[in-house]
Every structure is written in structure tokens, then in C-alpha cells.
Amino acid sequence: xxxxxxxxxxxxxxxxRGMNDLLPADAAQWAHLEHVLRDxxxxxxxxxxxxxxxxxxxxxxxxxxxxxxxxxxxMYSFEDRLNGExxxxxxxxxxxxxxxxxxxxxxxxxxxxxxxxxxxxxHERPQRGRYRQFHQFGIEALGFAGPDIDAExxxxxxxxxxxxxxxxxxxxxxxxxxxxxxAEHRTALVAYFEKHxxxxxxxxxxxxxxxPLRILDSKNPAMQDLIETAPKLLxxxxxxxxxxxxxxxxxxxxNNIPCRINPRLVxxxxxxxxxxxxxxxxxxxxxxxxxxxxxxDPLIERxxxxxxxxxxxxxxxxxxxxxxxxxGSLPEAQAQCDVFVLHQGGETLTTALIIAERxxxxxxxxxxxxxxxxxxxxxxxxxxxxxxxxxxxxVIIGPDELVKNEAQLKDLRTSGEQKAVALNNVVEAxxxxxxxxxx
Length: 439
Ligand code: ATP
Ligand code: MG
What we know:
CATH superfamily of the largest domain: Bira Bifunctional Protein, Domain 2
Strand content: 15-25%
Shape: elongated
Bound molecules: adenosine-5'-triphosphate, magnesium ion
Number of strands: 16
CATH architecture of the largest domain: 2-Layer Sandwich
Structural class: alpha+beta
Distance between the termini: 72 Å
Strand order of the largest sheet: 1-5-6-11-10-9-7-8
Oligomer: single chain
Mean pLDDT: 92
């Protein structure tokens, strides 16, 4: 007979494909990036705004545009079983942020500089730098019409790469002009592609009448020659649009930010006008765009708010961390704690816990030895754990120390020196040692 307990081996449950855990080994790198980003937003006076992860599907249908990759095929949408509402896990941050700004009347007192961060969800084919849950950091400057703010948000990007120690991230920019100019260009573009219809792939044939500008964004190698000679939007821009574009470029030049004009840069989302830009690296293969953005003056009105200009950008945090990894600019791993406390159970355990709490109250990061099996462990094996923790000091409290009201303080990293200190003075002795070591 088969053993019934063995027959029912419990299956493990895996995470969802394309959605990753953040493991402790990588946590410090994320914390570092988040820290740099917070400093960046403070340096430019941007305020934090957090929206929910779930929104009404209409937020993205309207905010991103129906004829986009995201809305057409990448959204995680579902019906709320309890009330039938159509909901979507947010695929990007801007539409939801604008929804919140309108709902909370945030532009009532004038323009706003805002930032957000968090997980985004897109049903894409998972590969390096492309996940189904990924994280973005983004900024939005709402209510500013001039090219100065376009330049400001681009300068923020350059400062960010500098702060992160990233070299070789290049800037490509373009201008999408205004709706009327795009309409004229669109007519010319449709006529051009119709003339060469046989060369269009399936996606592009479909887009020809829905969103022909997006054909220019196609990555299909077979279509690149055709796209290269297509009518260029830049040639259709009027005086005002050209002036805005030139002013942005002049401000960038005055700040020594090189950029390349890429007439084919149209961006994936529907709501852009005037300036669009991307930050690109050659070090990440196909997923080389680490951030992108631009102006989207029509969006706020389109979402039901009072018309106001707007621009911003979003960055993929996984791609930036990957770039930091391949270019060796990730910070050194930091020790988990300053002090590791060793004991021998019973009274020594009680005392060790009290001392550990005192150390923490003094701002010293402290790990207590806790035997995994609940049994006592030798000081030798505890010392191995202390070493592995990265702690700079060990505080050792055994029965011999306890009768003398003492602990042993051991330097684990530099001298290896060990000395007795009165239990009441452990905190001071550790602080003295740390201060002494940094002098
Ligand atoms: P791509 O052309 O690579 O699909 P996108 O134009 O769809 O990018 P945006 O919507 O502009 O991307 O998002 C801004 C940034 O977010 C991108 O530049 C990229 O760094 C990151 N990003 C977008 N999609 C993903 C994803 N599926 N996984 C990881 N990062 C992503
Ligand atoms: Mg995409």
C-alpha cells in the first residue's frame, strides 16, 4: 500500500510570470535608487502624489488612447465581481495622476510640480528589461506652458544619471507639434503609406487609418527603409511649434546637454504634443530606453479637467538598476547591522535582550543571536553568525561575564581586540568604539 501522506505531496505555488519578488539581496540597491530619486525631487521642488494601483478602466482608455499598444493589448482589466465595475491595474502613472489632480482640484491655486513611483502592470512578453509588473518613477509638471519647464524636466534626467554615476545615457528629442499640424502630416503620411501598402506589415495596415503616426514607431526591420523616407512631421510644424522646439534645444545647449533630434520619435502614448524625448543606453540590448516623456497639453482637458498645459517623464526602475549593474555603478553592499549580541540562554539571554534594546534605543543597529532550533549554541558557532552578519562589533554575555556584571566587547573587523566592559556601559563603549573607528 502506498503511504497516504506521501501520495499527497503538496505542490508549491509559484509567482506570476513576469512579476518578480524583490529579494533581500537586492533591497539595498532599490533603497539607494529611491533615495537618490527623493533627493532629486526635493532639489527641484517636486511634491509626492500617490494614486491607487487600481483605477476605472476608462482612466486609461481616455488618458492613454484606445489605439495604443497598452490599451489594445497590454492592460490587466477585470470586472469587479461585487459591483460589476470595469477596473484596470495601472499600466502607467500619468493618466491616474491627472485623474487625481482633477478630482482633488490641485491646480486651483496654480501650477504644480509632482512626482510618483510604484508598480505598473502590462501584459507583455517577459524578457530582460521587460516585465509584467515593473516599477516606474515619474515626474509631472502641470500648468506650465513654456519651453523652460520642458528643459527643466530634461535637466532633471541628466542630473539623475550623473547622481547615479551612469555614463553614456543619450538624449533623443523630437517635436510632435500641435493637433492641426499632425493632421496635415497625417494626410501626407497616409497617402505615402497607401502608395506603398504592399510593404506594410499587419499591425501597420491596421494602424494606417487608426493611428498612422505609430507606424513610424514600428520596430519591424522589414519596414525600416519605407519609414526612413516617409514624410517628416518636423516639416509640417508651424512657426509657434518650431519656436518652442528651438527654445528647448537652446536651453539644453546652454546647460551643455547634448541631444539628437530623432524625427521618428513618436512615443507609445497618444496624448503627447510638442516636445517628446527619450533617454537611451546601448548597454541593455533591445530594451535600451530607460526613460521617456514629453509635453501632453491636451490631456487634462481630455480627462475632464479645466484645460492646462502639462509635461513629464517616466523612468523604468528595473532598467536603470540593470544599467547600474552592468556599468558597475551600484553601491557596495552594506552590513546588515553594527552589533551582534551573543549569549548562553537563561539569565544571559534576558540580559542580552535588555542590552540589545538599549543599543537600538541609542540608534545602533543590533542583531540578537537566536538559535534556529531553540537549543543553545556554542559561542564558536554564534561567532560565525556574527561574522557573516557584517556587524562591526560583537557583544558577548556568558555566565562568567554575568556574575561580574560585565560583557565582552569584540572588534570583529579591524583589530579583533576584545575587552571587558561593565554592563551599564555597553552602549557608551560601543559608541566610543564606532566614533573611534571613524576618526
Ligand atoms: P518600450 O518601448 O520599451 O515598450 P514604452 O514606450 O512602452 O517602452 P513608457 O510607457 O514610456 O514605455 O514607460 C516609461 C519607461 O518605463 C520605459 O522607458 C521603460 O524604461 C519602462 N518600461 C516600460 N514598459 C516596461 C516593462 N514592461 N518592463 C520594464 N520596464 C518597462
Ligand atoms: Mg511598451
